[in-house]
Amino acid sequence: MYVSHVALDDFRSYRQIVATLVPGVNVLSGPNGQGKTNFVEAISYLANLSSHRVGAESALVRANPDGTKANAAVIRLKVCQGERERILELEIVSSKPNRARINRTAVRPRELAYELKTVIFAPEDLQLVRAEPALRRKFLDEGVAAWRPTLSQLKTDYEKVLRQRGALLKDLKSGRADSYAQSTLEVWNGQLATLGAQLTIARENLVAQLLAPTQKAHNKIASQGREIFLAYQRQVDKTIAPEKEIEETRDLAQRLQAAMAQREREEIARGVNLIGPHRDDLEIKLDHLPVRGFASHGESWSVALALKLGLYEVLGGQSEDRSERPVLILDDVFAELDSYRRAALAEIISGAEQVLITTAEASELPESLDAHHISVRRDPQAGSIFLETETLPVDGPVEETKTEATGEQGSAS
Ligand SMILES: Nc1ncnc2c1ncn2[C@@H]1O[C@H](COP(=O)(O)OP(=O)(O)OP(=O)(O)O)[C@@H](O)[C@H]1O
Ligand SMILES: [Mg+2]
After folding, report:
1. pLDDT, tens digit (0-9, with 9 covering 90-100), for 370-404
2. Which candidate among 70, 214, 367, 406 keeps its CA 20 to 30 Å from the CA of 236?
3. What are the binding positions for ATP in this chain (predicted)?
Protein backbone atom coordinates (compact mmCIF):
# COMPACT_ATOMS: atom_id res chain seq x y z
CA MET A 1 0.00 0.00 0.00
CA TYR A 2 1.05 3.58 -0.37
CA VAL A 3 -0.08 7.04 0.61
CA SER A 4 -0.71 9.15 -2.47
CA HIS A 5 -1.96 12.37 -0.88
CA VAL A 6 -1.58 13.95 2.51
CA ALA A 7 -3.62 16.91 3.72
CA LEU A 8 -2.77 18.43 7.08
CA ASP A 9 -4.60 21.18 8.90
CA ASP A 10 -3.03 22.66 12.03
CA PHE A 11 -0.87 19.62 12.65
CA ARG A 12 2.29 20.69 14.55
CA SER A 13 4.16 23.21 12.35
CA TYR A 14 1.75 22.73 9.42
CA ARG A 15 -0.98 25.31 9.03
CA GLN A 16 -2.47 23.81 5.89
CA ILE A 17 -0.87 21.65 3.26
CA VAL A 18 -1.93 19.21 0.56
CA ALA A 19 0.99 17.15 -0.63
CA THR A 20 1.47 14.38 -3.14
CA LEU A 21 3.64 11.34 -2.51
CA VAL A 22 4.70 8.64 -4.94
CA PRO A 23 5.04 4.87 -4.61
CA GLY A 24 8.70 3.96 -4.08
CA VAL A 25 11.12 6.16 -2.17
CA ASN A 26 10.16 9.69 -1.12
CA VAL A 27 12.91 11.77 0.46
CA LEU A 28 12.00 14.79 2.56
CA SER A 29 14.98 17.00 3.10
CA GLY A 30 15.67 20.41 4.55
CA PRO A 31 17.50 22.06 7.42
CA ASN A 32 16.74 21.21 11.04
CA GLY A 33 13.40 22.19 12.50
CA GLN A 34 11.53 22.71 9.21
CA GLY A 35 8.82 20.10 9.68
CA LYS A 36 10.17 16.90 8.09
CA THR A 37 9.59 14.70 11.12
CA ASN A 38 6.26 16.43 11.81
CA PHE A 39 5.06 15.35 8.37
CA VAL A 40 5.93 11.66 8.69
CA GLU A 41 4.73 11.66 12.29
CA ALA A 42 1.27 12.66 11.02
CA ILE A 43 1.10 9.61 8.74
CA SER A 44 2.37 7.25 11.41
CA TYR A 45 0.04 8.77 13.99
CA LEU A 46 -3.05 8.17 11.92
CA ALA A 47 -2.09 4.52 11.40
CA ASN A 48 -0.99 3.73 14.94
CA LEU A 49 -2.76 6.37 17.07
CA SER A 50 0.57 6.85 18.75
CA SER A 51 3.50 9.18 18.25
CA HIS A 52 7.11 8.07 18.35
CA ARG A 53 7.91 11.38 20.02
CA VAL A 54 5.23 12.33 22.53
CA GLY A 55 2.63 10.71 24.70
CA ALA A 56 0.41 13.78 24.93
CA GLU A 57 -1.74 14.53 21.92
CA SER A 58 -1.91 18.23 22.73
CA ALA A 59 1.61 18.62 21.30
CA LEU A 60 0.26 17.58 17.90
CA VAL A 61 -2.12 20.51 17.56
CA ARG A 62 -0.50 23.60 16.06
CA ALA A 63 0.52 26.26 18.53
CA ASN A 64 0.70 29.90 17.42
CA PRO A 65 3.79 31.96 18.18
CA ASP A 66 1.77 33.85 20.83
CA GLY A 67 1.12 30.58 22.68
CA THR A 68 -2.52 30.20 21.61
CA LYS A 69 -3.52 26.95 19.98
CA ALA A 70 -5.56 25.88 17.00
CA ASN A 71 -8.78 24.07 17.94
CA ALA A 72 -7.93 20.79 16.30
CA ALA A 73 -5.42 19.11 14.06
CA VAL A 74 -6.71 17.17 11.07
CA ILE A 75 -4.81 14.50 9.15
CA ARG A 76 -6.29 13.24 5.87
CA LEU A 77 -4.62 10.58 3.80
CA LYS A 78 -5.48 8.99 0.52
CA VAL A 79 -4.26 5.41 0.69
CA CYS A 80 -3.96 3.22 -2.39
CA GLN A 81 -3.91 -0.55 -2.10
CA GLY A 82 -3.97 -2.17 -5.49
CA GLU A 83 -7.12 -0.86 -7.17
CA ARG A 84 -8.61 0.17 -3.87
CA GLU A 85 -8.48 3.77 -2.72
CA ARG A 86 -9.50 5.02 0.68
CA ILE A 87 -9.62 8.44 2.30
CA LEU A 88 -8.69 8.17 5.95
CA GLU A 89 -9.22 11.06 8.26
CA LEU A 90 -8.31 11.69 11.87
CA GLU A 91 -9.24 14.77 13.83
CA ILE A 92 -7.30 15.41 17.01
CA VAL A 93 -8.98 17.78 19.42
CA SER A 94 -6.95 18.51 22.55
CA SER A 95 -8.32 16.69 25.60
CA LYS A 96 -11.26 15.20 23.70
CA PRO A 97 -11.59 11.82 21.99
CA ASN A 98 -10.25 11.66 18.44
CA ARG A 99 -12.69 11.48 15.56
CA ALA A 100 -12.05 9.27 12.57
CA ARG A 101 -13.63 8.81 9.17
CA ILE A 102 -13.07 6.39 6.33
CA ASN A 103 -14.37 7.61 2.98
CA ARG A 104 -16.25 10.32 4.90
CA THR A 105 -18.08 7.79 7.12
CA ALA A 106 -17.49 8.07 10.86
CA VAL A 107 -15.64 5.09 12.36
CA ARG A 108 -13.86 4.32 15.61
CA PRO A 109 -10.29 5.65 15.38
CA ARG A 110 -8.74 2.24 15.89
CA GLU A 111 -10.43 1.02 12.70
CA LEU A 112 -7.94 3.14 10.76
CA ALA A 113 -5.33 0.49 11.62
CA TYR A 114 -7.10 -1.94 9.26
CA GLU A 115 -6.62 0.47 6.35
CA LEU A 116 -3.06 1.68 6.72
CA LYS A 117 -0.03 -0.09 8.07
CA THR A 118 3.15 1.84 8.72
CA VAL A 119 6.41 1.04 10.45
CA ILE A 120 8.48 4.00 11.57
CA PHE A 121 12.10 3.92 12.61
CA ALA A 122 13.47 7.06 14.24
CA PRO A 123 16.37 8.08 16.50
CA GLU A 124 14.02 7.75 19.48
CA ASP A 125 13.97 4.00 18.83
CA LEU A 126 17.44 3.67 20.28
CA GLN A 127 15.64 3.88 23.60
CA LEU A 128 13.78 0.74 22.62
CA VAL A 129 16.85 -1.31 23.43
CA ARG A 130 18.40 0.97 26.05
CA ALA A 131 15.61 2.29 28.23
CA GLU A 132 13.30 0.83 30.83
CA PRO A 133 11.01 -2.13 29.98
CA ALA A 134 7.98 0.18 29.50
CA LEU A 135 9.15 1.20 26.01
CA ARG A 136 9.62 -2.40 24.93
CA ARG A 137 6.12 -3.25 26.16
CA LYS A 138 4.82 -0.27 24.16
CA PHE A 139 6.66 -1.58 21.08
CA LEU A 140 5.06 -5.00 21.51
CA ASP A 141 1.58 -3.63 22.19
CA GLU A 142 1.69 -1.34 19.16
CA GLY A 143 3.08 -4.20 17.14
CA VAL A 144 0.22 -6.47 18.24
CA ALA A 145 -2.35 -3.76 17.35
CA ALA A 146 -0.87 -3.33 13.87
CA TRP A 147 -0.42 -7.06 13.30
CA ARG A 148 -3.83 -8.10 14.62
CA PRO A 149 -6.03 -4.98 14.79
CA THR A 150 -8.80 -7.02 16.44
CA LEU A 151 -6.55 -7.33 19.50
CA SER A 152 -5.87 -3.60 19.81
CA GLN A 153 -8.67 -3.18 22.35
CA LEU A 154 -7.00 -5.67 24.69
CA LYS A 155 -4.35 -3.26 25.88
CA THR A 156 -6.90 -0.47 26.45
CA ASP A 157 -9.18 -2.80 28.40
CA TYR A 158 -6.29 -4.14 30.45
CA GLU A 159 -5.13 -0.65 31.35
CA LYS A 160 -8.63 0.40 32.33
CA VAL A 161 -8.94 -2.52 34.77
CA LEU A 162 -5.42 -1.81 36.00
CA ARG A 163 -6.35 1.80 36.78
CA GLN A 164 -9.55 0.87 38.56
CA ARG A 165 -7.90 -1.87 40.57
CA GLY A 166 -5.02 0.49 41.39
CA ALA A 167 -7.49 3.07 42.73
CA LEU A 168 -9.13 0.42 44.87
CA LEU A 169 -5.76 -0.71 46.26
CA LYS A 170 -4.99 2.90 47.20
CA ASP A 171 -8.35 3.19 48.97
CA LEU A 172 -7.69 -0.05 50.82
CA LYS A 173 -4.25 1.20 51.80
CA SER A 174 -5.59 4.44 53.19
CA GLY A 175 -8.50 2.73 54.93
CA ARG A 176 -11.06 4.65 52.83
CA ALA A 177 -12.54 1.50 51.32
CA ASP A 178 -15.51 -0.17 53.04
CA SER A 179 -15.97 -3.90 53.31
CA TYR A 180 -18.03 -3.96 50.09
CA ALA A 181 -15.19 -2.31 48.19
CA GLN A 182 -12.81 -4.84 49.70
CA SER A 183 -14.95 -7.67 48.41
CA THR A 184 -14.79 -6.28 44.84
CA LEU A 185 -11.02 -6.78 44.80
CA GLU A 186 -11.53 -10.39 43.86
CA VAL A 187 -13.70 -9.41 40.89
CA TRP A 188 -10.97 -7.06 39.67
CA ASN A 189 -8.41 -9.83 40.20
CA GLY A 190 -10.38 -12.08 37.87
CA GLN A 191 -10.70 -9.44 35.16
CA LEU A 192 -7.07 -8.37 35.41
CA ALA A 193 -5.92 -11.98 35.23
CA THR A 194 -8.05 -12.81 32.16
CA LEU A 195 -7.10 -9.71 30.20
CA GLY A 196 -3.50 -9.93 31.42
CA ALA A 197 -3.22 -13.51 30.20
CA GLN A 198 -4.67 -12.60 26.78
CA LEU A 199 -2.31 -9.66 26.46
CA THR A 200 0.68 -11.81 27.45
CA ILE A 201 -0.15 -14.51 24.90
CA ALA A 202 -0.66 -11.89 22.16
CA ARG A 203 2.74 -10.35 22.92
CA GLU A 204 4.41 -13.77 23.04
CA ASN A 205 2.90 -14.73 19.70
CA LEU A 206 4.25 -11.52 18.19
CA VAL A 207 7.72 -12.14 19.63
CA ALA A 208 7.69 -15.63 18.11
CA GLN A 209 6.86 -14.08 14.72
CA LEU A 210 9.47 -11.35 15.10
CA LEU A 211 12.48 -13.50 15.92
CA ALA A 212 13.45 -14.84 12.48
CA PRO A 213 12.89 -11.62 10.44
CA THR A 214 14.68 -9.56 13.09
CA GLN A 215 17.66 -11.94 12.98
CA LYS A 216 17.64 -11.81 9.19
CA ALA A 217 17.57 -8.01 9.11
CA HIS A 218 20.30 -7.84 11.74
CA ASN A 219 22.53 -10.21 9.80
CA LYS A 220 22.25 -7.89 6.81
CA ILE A 221 22.81 -4.63 8.65
CA ALA A 222 25.47 -5.62 11.16
CA SER A 223 28.57 -7.14 9.66
CA GLN A 224 30.05 -8.76 12.78
CA GLY A 225 28.00 -11.93 12.55
CA ARG A 226 26.52 -11.75 16.03
CA GLU A 227 23.06 -13.16 16.53
CA ILE A 228 20.08 -11.42 18.12
CA PHE A 229 17.92 -13.34 20.56
CA LEU A 230 14.51 -12.20 21.70
CA ALA A 231 12.64 -13.63 24.65
CA TYR A 232 9.43 -12.42 26.22
CA GLN A 233 9.95 -12.28 29.95
CA ARG A 234 6.91 -12.94 32.04
CA GLN A 235 6.87 -11.71 35.57
CA VAL A 236 5.09 -14.86 36.72
CA ASP A 237 6.43 -18.33 36.07
CA LYS A 238 9.95 -17.27 35.33
CA THR A 239 11.14 -20.76 36.12
CA ILE A 240 8.63 -22.54 33.93
CA ALA A 241 10.02 -25.37 31.82
CA PRO A 242 10.39 -24.28 28.18
CA GLU A 243 8.06 -26.94 26.82
CA LYS A 244 5.29 -25.60 29.01
CA GLU A 245 5.60 -22.08 27.79
CA ILE A 246 2.94 -22.32 25.12
CA GLU A 247 0.07 -22.86 27.45
CA GLU A 248 -3.56 -21.92 27.39
CA THR A 249 -4.61 -18.39 28.28
CA ARG A 250 -6.84 -19.85 30.96
CA ASP A 251 -3.94 -21.49 32.76
CA LEU A 252 -1.92 -18.31 32.70
CA ALA A 253 -4.91 -16.37 34.03
CA GLN A 254 -5.08 -18.82 36.92
CA ARG A 255 -1.41 -18.33 37.66
CA LEU A 256 -1.79 -14.56 37.59
CA GLN A 257 -4.71 -14.77 39.95
CA ALA A 258 -2.80 -17.07 42.29
CA ALA A 259 0.11 -14.62 42.28
CA MET A 260 -2.28 -11.78 43.17
CA ALA A 261 -3.72 -13.79 46.04
CA GLN A 262 -0.21 -14.53 47.27
CA ARG A 263 0.83 -10.89 47.26
CA GLU A 264 -2.48 -9.31 48.23
CA ARG A 265 -1.18 -7.92 51.52
CA GLU A 266 1.81 -6.34 49.83
CA GLU A 267 -0.37 -4.85 47.07
CA ILE A 268 -2.69 -3.28 49.64
CA ALA A 269 0.20 -2.09 51.81
CA ARG A 270 1.78 -0.36 48.82
CA GLY A 271 -1.46 0.60 47.07
CA VAL A 272 -0.20 -0.53 43.64
CA ASN A 273 -0.76 -3.33 41.13
CA LEU A 274 2.23 -5.63 41.50
CA ILE A 275 1.17 -8.54 39.30
CA GLY A 276 0.51 -8.61 35.58
CA PRO A 277 2.00 -8.04 32.13
CA HIS A 278 2.52 -4.35 32.91
CA ARG A 279 5.58 -5.72 34.72
CA ASP A 280 6.85 -7.89 31.85
CA ASP A 281 9.74 -7.18 29.50
CA LEU A 282 11.18 -8.16 26.16
CA GLU A 283 14.67 -9.49 26.66
CA ILE A 284 17.02 -8.67 23.79
CA LYS A 285 20.43 -10.30 23.60
CA LEU A 286 23.34 -10.19 21.20
CA ASP A 287 24.78 -13.69 21.37
CA HIS A 288 24.65 -14.27 25.13
CA LEU A 289 24.88 -10.71 26.41
CA PRO A 290 21.91 -8.45 27.02
CA VAL A 291 21.88 -5.47 24.66
CA ARG A 292 20.82 -3.14 27.43
CA GLY A 293 23.87 -2.14 29.40
CA PHE A 294 26.35 -4.04 27.20
CA ALA A 295 25.97 -3.15 23.52
CA SER A 296 27.84 -0.24 21.97
CA HIS A 297 26.03 2.76 20.49
CA GLY A 298 26.33 1.43 16.94
CA GLU A 299 25.34 -2.10 17.98
CA SER A 300 22.30 -0.75 19.80
CA TRP A 301 21.29 1.14 16.66
CA SER A 302 21.58 -1.97 14.52
CA VAL A 303 19.51 -3.99 16.98
CA ALA A 304 16.78 -1.32 17.21
CA LEU A 305 16.69 -1.00 13.43
CA ALA A 306 16.57 -4.79 13.01
CA LEU A 307 13.61 -4.98 15.42
CA LYS A 308 11.70 -2.43 13.38
CA LEU A 309 12.59 -4.12 10.09
CA GLY A 310 11.50 -7.40 11.71
CA LEU A 311 8.15 -5.83 12.53
CA TYR A 312 7.93 -4.49 8.99
CA GLU A 313 8.26 -8.05 7.69
CA VAL A 314 5.74 -9.43 10.20
CA LEU A 315 3.25 -6.81 8.99
CA GLY A 316 3.69 -7.96 5.40
CA GLY A 317 6.93 -6.32 4.26
CA GLN A 318 7.91 -9.34 2.16
CA SER A 319 4.42 -10.15 1.03
CA GLU A 320 4.12 -11.49 -2.54
CA ASP A 321 1.38 -8.98 -3.10
CA ARG A 322 3.22 -5.66 -2.93
CA SER A 323 0.05 -3.84 -2.02
CA GLU A 324 0.07 -5.73 1.29
CA ARG A 325 3.43 -4.25 2.27
CA PRO A 326 3.32 -1.52 4.93
CA VAL A 327 4.60 1.99 4.37
CA LEU A 328 8.11 2.17 5.79
CA ILE A 329 9.17 5.45 7.41
CA LEU A 330 12.81 6.15 8.19
CA ASP A 331 13.17 9.35 10.16
CA ASP A 332 16.73 10.68 10.22
CA VAL A 333 18.18 7.20 10.08
CA PHE A 334 20.87 7.30 7.43
CA ALA A 335 22.99 9.95 9.17
CA GLU A 336 23.58 7.51 12.05
CA LEU A 337 24.76 4.63 9.90
CA ASP A 338 28.18 3.94 8.43
CA SER A 339 28.45 3.44 4.69
CA TYR A 340 28.23 -0.36 4.95
CA ARG A 341 24.99 -0.22 6.89
CA ARG A 342 23.60 2.57 4.66
CA ALA A 343 24.07 0.38 1.61
CA ALA A 344 22.55 -2.62 3.42
CA LEU A 345 19.52 -0.59 4.46
CA ALA A 346 19.12 0.81 0.95
CA GLU A 347 19.03 -2.75 -0.37
CA ILE A 348 16.47 -3.85 2.22
CA ILE A 349 14.12 -0.96 1.46
CA SER A 350 14.37 -1.40 -2.29
CA GLY A 351 11.59 -4.01 -2.07
CA ALA A 352 9.19 -1.76 -0.18
CA GLU A 353 6.14 -0.44 -1.92
CA GLN A 354 6.59 2.97 -0.33
CA VAL A 355 9.34 4.42 1.84
CA LEU A 356 9.39 7.88 3.38
CA ILE A 357 12.83 9.09 4.38
CA THR A 358 13.61 12.30 6.22
CA THR A 359 17.08 13.75 6.26
CA ALA A 360 18.73 17.08 6.90
CA GLU A 361 21.42 16.15 4.37
CA ALA A 362 20.21 14.45 1.21
CA SER A 363 23.87 13.88 0.29
CA GLU A 364 24.09 11.29 3.09
CA LEU A 365 21.73 8.97 1.28
CA PRO A 366 23.21 6.17 -0.81
CA GLU A 367 23.40 7.14 -4.48
CA SER A 368 21.69 3.91 -5.42
CA LEU A 369 18.39 5.22 -4.00
CA ASP A 370 16.10 6.23 -6.82
CA ALA A 371 13.95 8.74 -5.01
CA HIS A 372 11.32 11.42 -5.38
CA HIS A 373 12.78 14.46 -3.60
CA ILE A 374 10.76 16.96 -1.64
CA SER A 375 12.28 19.81 0.20
CA VAL A 376 10.58 21.07 3.32
CA ARG A 377 10.81 24.68 4.47
CA ARG A 378 9.18 26.59 7.23
CA ASP A 379 7.62 29.94 6.53
CA PRO A 380 6.76 32.31 9.41
CA GLN A 381 3.27 32.90 8.01
CA ALA A 382 2.39 29.73 6.13
CA GLY A 383 4.02 27.27 8.57
CA SER A 384 5.82 24.26 7.12
CA ILE A 385 5.46 23.91 3.35
CA PHE A 386 6.72 21.62 0.62
CA LEU A 387 8.89 22.72 -2.26
CA GLU A 388 8.70 20.08 -4.96
CA THR A 389 12.30 20.32 -6.01
CA GLU A 390 12.25 17.42 -8.41
CA THR A 391 10.23 19.38 -10.95
CA LEU A 392 12.74 22.27 -11.04
CA PRO A 393 14.52 22.84 -14.35
CA VAL A 394 17.98 21.32 -14.17
CA ASP A 395 19.97 24.18 -15.64
CA GLY A 396 17.53 27.08 -15.45
CA PRO A 397 17.48 29.54 -12.57
CA VAL A 398 16.61 27.74 -9.36
CA GLU A 399 13.37 29.37 -8.51
CA GLU A 400 11.57 27.52 -5.76
CA THR A 401 7.97 26.83 -6.62
CA LYS A 402 5.43 26.42 -3.85
CA THR A 403 3.24 23.64 -5.22
CA GLU A 404 0.06 22.55 -3.57
CA ALA A 405 1.07 24.04 -0.25
CA THR A 406 -2.04 26.13 -0.10
CA GLY A 407 -4.32 23.67 -1.82
CA GLU A 408 -8.00 23.33 -1.37
CA GLN A 409 -8.91 23.00 2.28
CA GLY A 410 -9.74 19.62 3.63
CA SER A 411 -9.39 17.52 0.55
CA ALA A 412 -6.93 14.75 0.03
CA SER A 413 -8.75 13.35 -2.94
N1 LIG B 1 2.34 21.83 18.05
C2 LIG B 1 3.21 22.58 17.38
N3 LIG B 1 2.87 23.81 16.93
C4 LIG B 1 3.76 24.58 16.26
N5 LIG B 1 5.01 24.21 15.97
C6 LIG B 1 5.40 23.00 16.40
C7 LIG B 1 4.54 22.12 17.11
N8 LIG B 1 5.22 20.99 17.40
C9 LIG B 1 6.44 21.15 16.90
N10 LIG B 1 6.56 22.35 16.29
C11 LIG B 1 7.76 22.90 15.66
O12 LIG B 1 8.18 22.05 14.62
C13 LIG B 1 9.59 22.15 14.52
C14 LIG B 1 10.21 20.79 14.47
O15 LIG B 1 9.80 20.16 13.33
P16 LIG B 1 10.41 18.74 12.95
O17 LIG B 1 10.68 17.96 14.15
O18 LIG B 1 9.52 18.18 11.94
O19 LIG B 1 11.78 19.22 12.33
P20 LIG B 1 12.70 18.43 11.30
O21 LIG B 1 12.57 19.11 9.98
O22 LIG B 1 12.43 16.99 11.37
O23 LIG B 1 14.13 18.80 11.90
P24 LIG B 1 15.42 17.88 12.21
O25 LIG B 1 16.21 17.86 10.95
O26 LIG B 1 16.10 18.65 13.28
O27 LIG B 1 14.95 16.54 12.65
C28 LIG B 1 10.10 22.88 15.74
O29 LIG B 1 10.50 24.16 15.36
C30 LIG B 1 8.90 22.93 16.65
O31 LIG B 1 8.88 24.10 17.40
MG1 LIG C 1 13.39 15.41 12.29
Report:
1. 899 999 999 888 888 888 654 433 343 434 434 44
2. 214
3. 30-37
What's the CATH number where 210 sits?
Answer: 1.20.1050.90
* Contact present, 188 and 260 (Cβ < 8 Å): no
Q: Are residues 185 and 314 in the same domain?
A: yes
Ligand-binding site membership of 257 (annotated) = no
242 is in an annotated binding site: no
In Å, the largest CA–CA distance within the chain is 83
Per-residue model confidence as pLDDT tens digits over 205-218? 999 999 999 999 99
CATH number for the domain spanning 98: value is 3.40.50.300
Residues 290 and 194 reside in one and the same domain: yes
Question: Which residue of 38, 53, 361 sits with most ligand 1 atoms within 8 Å of its CB, as the best mutation to test the pocket?
Answer: 38
**Looking at this protein, which amino acid is placed at residue 15?**
R
Starting at the earlier edge strand, list the strands of the sheet with 289-290.
228-233, 281-286, 289-290
Testing ligand 1's pocket by substitution, the residue of 6, 17, 34, 53 carrying the most ligand atoms inside 8 A of its CB is: 34
In the chain, how many domains are there? 2
